[in-house]
Design goal:
Glutaredoxin, four-stranded mixed sheet, Immunoglobulin-like, cytochrome c-type biogenesis, alpha+beta
Amino acid sequence: MKKIIYILSIALAFVSCKKEVTKDYVTLSGTIINQNSDSLVVAQRGIIKTLKVNADGTFLDTLKVEAGSYILFDGVEQAKLYLKNGYDLKVSIDTKAFDETLKFTGNGSEANNYLAKKGLLSEKIVDYAGILKMDKLSFNKRIESNKEEFLTLLKTTKNLDSTFIKEEEKQVEIITKQLGMMYSEKEAILALKGKASPKFVDYENHAGGLTSLDDLKEKYVYIDLWATWCGPCKAEIPFLKKVEKEYHGKNIEFVSISIDRENAYETWRKMVTDKELTGIQLYAKGDKTFTEAYKVTGIPRFILIDPQGNIVSADAPRPSDSELIDLFKELSI
């Protein structure tokens, strides 16, 4: 009898050992060729975890997550990930061709290889600047074509989680809707051309006193809407200085309007001084009437007004864009 019980105990133990235990964490490992740094960052709304990368480019770590989208950042490049506890993902990347060589194997690889392919497809077919310049019919056709390509990629990828599929379908719809809204905004902005410009009144001038748009009549006015916290705005500063210098003394005024909040007033004054910003430097002091009239939803935004106070372009080329000088030449400024 004891022998039978002993044998049954061994059998039960064997069955218990064979039972698969679901991990409550993600395992991330892999190899990076031509690594950009000695670490990788997994982030969502903030940094979730920093993974150490060895000198030979290998890495291995674990982390607990809520199922969803994350970013893998190597200090220079980044990739979108879909992580779920229980995944055991192996990553391989050559940073010389980051997007093209990004590959995943192991549990969870299907969704992440799909995301890598989606990224490449997006680079290939999505040209936001070009799409927004199309006529309405061409725009609609292009949007539908892009939507179909993304959904085809999703449908032909096997072994995807149903929740993941629903979220991706939702994202395609959101992007399609956002592009439609962007196109409508662009049409509204283009419709402003030739109309009398909305006015700003009594904005604080860094050089002293108050300045209004009416004070600048009889010259072209090139307006830069910016803020001290805006990286792309600050990236335009060297280009704007160069253009201002080239057109100094000509029939044009260069006006930079800070739309910083009032608690950043001193930051604005200091930055104008420290960076030796040229042109007319104004502070809106929380006033939104001018930006709202120009339908501003993002900065930097550049506006060109003619000597009669009419709008030449409500969304003029940036100083870093060679089209700006072409426009100035066309207007004989």
